[in-house]
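Entry for the shared binder. Reason: the reviewer on the internal report wants the predicted structure included alongside the sequence.
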Amino acid sequence: MHILKLENVEKTYKLGDVRLKVLNGIDLAIKKGERIAVMGPSGSGKSTVLHIAGCLDRPTKGRVFVDNKDVSKLGDSDLARIRREKVGFVFQFFYLVPSLTSLGNVMLPMIFSGRQNKERAVKLLKGVGLPERMEHLPSQLSGGERQRVAIARAMANEPDIIMADEPTGNLDSKSGKEVIDYLLKLNKEKGITLIIVTHDKNIASCANRIIYLKDGKIIKEERKKKK
Protein backbone atom coordinates (compact mmCIF):
# COMPACT_ATOMS: atom_id res chain seq x y z
CA MET A 1 0.00 0.00 0.00
CA HIS A 2 1.23 3.46 -0.89
CA ILE A 3 1.14 5.83 2.06
CA LEU A 4 1.96 8.75 -0.23
CA LYS A 5 1.56 9.27 -3.95
CA LEU A 6 2.15 12.20 -6.31
CA GLU A 7 0.64 12.02 -9.80
CA ASN A 8 1.88 14.37 -12.53
CA VAL A 9 2.43 17.14 -10.00
CA GLU A 10 3.32 20.58 -11.27
CA LYS A 11 3.96 23.72 -9.27
CA THR A 12 4.16 27.21 -10.70
CA TYR A 13 4.73 30.35 -8.65
CA LYS A 14 3.70 33.82 -9.82
CA LEU A 15 6.26 36.53 -9.14
CA GLY A 16 4.55 39.67 -10.35
CA ASP A 17 4.09 39.12 -14.09
CA VAL A 18 6.59 36.28 -14.16
CA ARG A 19 5.59 32.62 -13.84
CA LEU A 20 8.21 30.28 -12.39
CA LYS A 21 7.60 26.56 -12.88
CA VAL A 22 9.35 24.75 -10.02
CA LEU A 23 7.94 21.24 -10.52
CA ASN A 24 7.22 19.78 -13.94
CA GLY A 25 5.34 16.47 -13.87
CA ILE A 26 6.43 14.65 -10.70
CA ASP A 27 5.27 11.05 -10.32
CA LEU A 28 6.27 9.45 -7.04
CA ALA A 29 4.76 6.59 -5.02
CA ILE A 30 6.05 5.77 -1.52
CA LYS A 31 5.15 2.69 0.51
CA LYS A 32 4.67 2.66 4.26
CA GLY A 33 7.96 2.21 6.10
CA GLU A 34 10.24 3.21 3.23
CA ARG A 35 13.31 5.40 3.65
CA ILE A 36 13.52 7.94 0.83
CA ALA A 37 16.30 10.42 0.14
CA VAL A 38 15.63 13.31 -2.27
CA MET A 39 18.72 14.84 -3.87
CA GLY A 40 19.49 17.41 -6.51
CA PRO A 41 21.12 20.81 -7.04
CA SER A 42 19.78 23.98 -5.42
CA GLY A 43 16.62 25.09 -7.19
CA SER A 44 15.77 21.62 -8.48
CA GLY A 45 12.49 21.49 -6.55
CA LYS A 46 13.43 19.25 -3.60
CA SER A 47 11.84 21.31 -0.85
CA THR A 48 8.78 22.03 -2.98
CA VAL A 49 8.19 18.30 -3.43
CA LEU A 50 8.40 17.87 0.34
CA HIS A 51 6.04 20.77 1.03
CA ILE A 52 3.42 19.49 -1.41
CA ALA A 53 3.73 15.88 -0.24
CA GLY A 54 3.38 17.07 3.36
CA CYS A 55 0.30 19.22 2.63
CA LEU A 56 2.14 22.46 3.42
CA ASP A 57 1.46 23.61 -0.14
CA ARG A 58 -0.85 22.66 -3.01
CA PRO A 59 0.12 21.59 -6.53
CA THR A 60 -0.78 23.84 -9.44
CA LYS A 61 -1.65 20.70 -11.41
CA GLY A 62 -1.72 17.00 -10.61
CA ARG A 63 -2.91 15.06 -7.58
CA VAL A 64 -1.55 14.13 -4.17
CA PHE A 65 -2.75 11.08 -2.25
CA VAL A 66 -2.19 10.43 1.45
CA ASP A 67 -3.33 6.95 2.54
CA ASN A 68 -5.07 6.62 -0.85
CA LYS A 69 -7.12 9.77 -0.25
CA ASP A 70 -6.83 12.59 -2.79
CA VAL A 71 -5.90 15.65 -0.73
CA SER A 72 -5.13 17.98 -3.66
CA LYS A 73 -8.35 19.99 -3.45
CA LEU A 74 -8.95 19.92 0.30
CA GLY A 75 -9.49 23.15 2.21
CA ASP A 76 -7.02 24.65 4.64
CA SER A 77 -8.61 23.14 7.76
CA ASP A 78 -8.62 19.63 6.28
CA LEU A 79 -5.01 19.95 5.17
CA ALA A 80 -4.05 21.18 8.64
CA ARG A 81 -5.73 18.13 10.17
CA ILE A 82 -3.78 15.78 7.88
CA ARG A 83 -0.54 17.53 8.81
CA ARG A 84 -1.33 17.20 12.50
CA GLU A 85 -2.33 13.55 12.32
CA LYS A 86 -0.16 12.06 9.59
CA VAL A 87 3.05 14.03 9.16
CA GLY A 88 5.92 15.20 11.36
CA PHE A 89 8.29 17.85 9.99
CA VAL A 90 11.96 18.45 10.77
CA PHE A 91 13.59 21.50 9.17
CA GLN A 92 17.15 22.78 8.79
CA PHE A 93 16.46 25.85 10.96
CA PHE A 94 14.62 24.00 13.78
CA TYR A 95 11.73 26.53 14.07
CA LEU A 96 11.39 26.09 17.82
CA VAL A 97 9.34 28.69 19.70
CA PRO A 98 12.01 30.80 21.50
CA SER A 99 9.86 31.52 24.56
CA LEU A 100 8.95 27.87 25.20
CA THR A 101 11.07 25.26 26.94
CA SER A 102 11.99 21.99 25.24
CA LEU A 103 9.00 20.39 26.93
CA GLY A 104 6.71 23.23 25.84
CA ASN A 105 7.85 22.97 22.23
CA VAL A 106 7.20 19.22 22.14
CA MET A 107 3.77 19.64 23.72
CA LEU A 108 2.72 22.36 21.26
CA PRO A 109 1.44 20.03 18.48
CA MET A 110 -0.47 18.04 21.09
CA ILE A 111 -2.18 21.21 22.31
CA PHE A 112 -3.18 22.16 18.76
CA SER A 113 -4.66 18.70 18.17
CA GLY A 114 -6.45 18.62 21.54
CA ARG A 115 -4.41 15.65 22.76
CA GLN A 116 -2.18 17.21 25.39
CA ASN A 117 -0.05 14.54 27.05
CA LYS A 118 2.85 15.70 29.22
CA GLU A 119 3.97 12.15 29.98
CA ARG A 120 4.37 11.42 26.27
CA ALA A 121 6.32 14.65 25.73
CA VAL A 122 8.67 13.73 28.60
CA LYS A 123 9.13 10.25 27.15
CA LEU A 124 9.92 11.66 23.70
CA LEU A 125 12.56 14.01 25.07
CA LYS A 126 14.12 11.16 27.03
CA GLY A 127 14.06 9.12 23.83
CA VAL A 128 16.14 11.71 21.98
CA GLY A 129 18.61 11.83 24.86
CA LEU A 130 17.56 15.11 26.49
CA PRO A 131 16.27 14.19 29.96
CA GLU A 132 18.27 17.05 31.51
CA ARG A 133 17.20 19.67 28.97
CA MET A 134 13.42 19.64 29.34
CA GLU A 135 13.16 23.04 31.05
CA HIS A 136 15.78 24.73 28.88
CA LEU A 137 14.87 27.36 26.31
CA PRO A 138 16.12 26.92 22.72
CA SER A 139 18.72 29.64 23.30
CA GLN A 140 20.23 27.47 26.05
CA LEU A 141 20.66 24.46 23.76
CA SER A 142 23.29 23.51 21.20
CA GLY A 143 22.32 23.11 17.55
CA GLY A 144 22.25 19.34 17.86
CA GLU A 145 20.08 19.53 20.96
CA ARG A 146 17.65 21.91 19.25
CA GLN A 147 17.29 19.53 16.33
CA ARG A 148 16.63 16.62 18.67
CA VAL A 149 13.90 18.68 20.35
CA ALA A 150 12.51 19.31 16.85
CA ILE A 151 12.47 15.55 16.18
CA ALA A 152 10.68 14.91 19.47
CA ARG A 153 8.16 17.59 18.49
CA ALA A 154 7.71 15.96 15.07
CA MET A 155 6.83 12.70 16.87
CA ALA A 156 4.36 14.36 19.26
CA ASN A 157 1.18 13.22 17.50
CA GLU A 158 2.52 9.79 16.47
CA PRO A 159 2.78 10.53 12.72
CA ASP A 160 3.03 7.86 10.02
CA ILE A 161 5.51 9.96 8.03
CA ILE A 162 8.46 12.13 8.99
CA MET A 163 9.67 14.65 6.41
CA ALA A 164 13.09 16.13 7.06
CA ASP A 165 14.38 19.04 4.95
CA GLU A 166 18.18 19.24 5.24
CA PRO A 167 17.94 18.24 8.93
CA THR A 168 21.74 18.31 9.44
CA GLY A 169 22.41 21.45 7.39
CA ASN A 170 23.19 23.61 10.45
CA LEU A 171 24.94 20.94 12.53
CA ASP A 172 28.50 19.74 12.99
CA SER A 173 29.26 16.22 11.76
CA LYS A 174 28.90 14.56 15.18
CA SER A 175 25.55 16.17 15.94
CA GLY A 176 24.38 15.50 12.40
CA LYS A 177 25.18 11.81 12.72
CA GLU A 178 23.26 11.62 16.00
CA VAL A 179 20.21 13.21 14.38
CA ILE A 180 20.28 10.89 11.35
CA ASP A 181 20.83 7.83 13.56
CA TYR A 182 17.75 8.72 15.58
CA LEU A 183 15.62 9.25 12.46
CA LEU A 184 16.75 5.87 11.14
CA LYS A 185 15.92 4.31 14.49
CA LEU A 186 12.35 5.64 14.24
CA ASN A 187 12.07 4.16 10.77
CA LYS A 188 13.41 0.74 11.75
CA GLU A 189 11.77 0.32 15.14
CA LYS A 190 8.43 2.06 14.61
CA GLY A 191 7.97 1.60 10.87
CA ILE A 192 7.67 5.33 10.27
CA THR A 193 8.05 6.35 6.65
CA LEU A 194 11.07 8.64 6.36
CA ILE A 195 11.63 11.20 3.59
CA ILE A 196 14.85 13.23 3.78
CA VAL A 197 15.89 16.08 1.50
CA THR A 198 19.68 16.24 1.60
CA HIS A 199 22.82 17.28 -0.27
CA ASP A 200 24.87 14.76 1.74
CA LYS A 201 25.65 11.53 -0.11
CA ASN A 202 26.46 9.74 3.14
CA ILE A 203 23.00 10.51 4.49
CA ALA A 204 21.38 9.51 1.20
CA SER A 205 23.22 6.18 1.31
CA CYS A 206 21.16 5.25 4.39
CA ALA A 207 17.95 5.34 2.33
CA ASN A 208 16.53 2.39 0.44
CA ARG A 209 15.48 4.70 -2.41
CA ILE A 210 17.25 7.80 -3.68
CA ILE A 211 15.27 10.20 -5.89
CA TYR A 212 17.30 12.64 -8.00
CA LEU A 213 15.68 15.89 -9.14
CA LYS A 214 16.81 18.39 -11.73
CA ASP A 215 14.85 21.34 -13.13
CA GLY A 216 11.68 20.19 -11.41
CA LYS A 217 11.77 16.65 -12.80
CA ILE A 218 12.81 13.27 -11.47
CA ILE A 219 15.76 12.34 -13.64
CA LYS A 220 16.92 9.17 -11.88
CA GLU A 221 16.08 6.79 -9.06
CA GLU A 222 18.25 4.32 -7.22
CA ARG A 223 16.81 1.45 -5.19
CA LYS A 224 18.64 -0.47 -2.50
CA LYS A 225 17.79 -3.44 -0.40
CA LYS A 226 16.38 -2.57 3.01
CA LYS A 227 19.01 -2.57 5.71
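Summary line for the report: The domain at 35-47+75-223 is CATH 3.40.50.300 (Rossmann fold).
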